[in-house]
Design brief:
The structure is a single chain. By secondary structure, the chain is an alpha+beta fold. The protein folds into three domains: about 55 residues, Roll (Structural Genomics Hypothetical 15.5 Kd Protein In mrcA-pckA Intergenic Region, Chain A); about 90 residues, Alpha-Beta Plaits (2-Layer Sandwich); about 80 residues, Alpha-L RNA-binding motif (Alpha-Beta Plaits), CATH 3.30.70.1560. Helix content is about 20%, strand content about 30%. It is built from seven helices and 19 strands. A hairpin with a 2-residue loop joins β17 and β18. The chain is elongated. Bound molecules: uracil. Uracil binds next to α6.
């Protein structure tokens, strides 16, 4: 892949493009061990060796983040009224044009993946892939005996007039449980509980595919995933 020298260095977290331009004038940037003052130069990320202050810059095209989304933020890249999950990122990560993979409601917390890798996004969100998503759910009323059976059979959702795929249900207490679903219809978990006469009072996603929300990751915090974790 080819990329401008200043964009490459700035994307890797070494400052703004104007700062990099100034440093280039000072002779701090080298391409293939030759000082390079033209920051608009196109770099071939497979062949060229870029050094900044004599440090080798390893270029990464794709970035993968796992966030514990807090309440009050929407799963979008921009919005005129609400704060978005992108607002929670450091400038360095903002420069990668990351997008949330799937959506969580504004009042839902928990695991949200973000990436600029469209193929990865598709793998996780395509309805054909049946990626499991597990939610921790707190309810307004007591759980009834038939919920497990009803969710396994599927619930009819209107106005789409679709039946949800078999879901797995695990009771944790009188009013809390875990629910694993294999699709992601609009407000799906809340609507499934409404259909059985209950109401979700707290919702948190704890798993998506093989990605788990680490227990020590506070709301609003995120970690970067490694290439190895992604390939799994
Ligand atoms: N189901 C919901 O109802 N809300 C979410 O945010 C995710 C799943």
């Amino acid at each position: 892949m080819k990329i401008r020298l200043d964009k490459l260095i700035s994307n890797m977290g070494y400052g703004s493009r104007s700062e990099i331009k100034k440093d280039a004038k000072k002779g701090l940037i080298k391409v293939n061990d030759m000082v390079e003052k033209n920051t608009g130069k196109l770099i071939d990320t497979e062949k060229d060796l870029v050094k900044y202050n004599d440090e080798i810059i390893e270029y990464r095209q794709f970035i993968y983040l796992l966030m514990n989304k807090p309440k009050g933020y929407i799963s979008a890249t921009e919005d005129s009224y609400h704060k978005t999950v992108i607002d929670l990122l450091e400038d360095y990560h903002k420069s990668f044009n990351l997008a949330p993979i799937g959506r969580l409601d504004i009042d839902t917390e928990g695991l949200l993946l973000l990436s600029n890798d469209g193929k990865f996004n598709h793998e996780l969100t395509s309805p054909k892939k049946n990626v499991p998503k597990t939610y921790y759910v707190e309810l307004a009323r007591q759980i009834e005996d038939d919920y497990g059976k009803v969710f396994k059979k599927g619930i009819k959702l209107m106005p789409e007039n679709i039946v949800t795929k078999p879901a797995e249900f695990k009771i944790l207490s009188e009013k809390s449980c875990e629910l694993t679903i294999y699709e992601g219809k609009f407000h799906q978990v809340k609507r499934m509980f409404e259909e059985v006469g209950n109401r979700v009072t707290y919702l948190k996603r704890i798993k998506m595919g093989h990605f788990k929300l680490p227990v020590d990751l506070d709301a609003g915090e995120y970690i970067e995933l490694t290439e190895e974790e992604i390939k799994m």
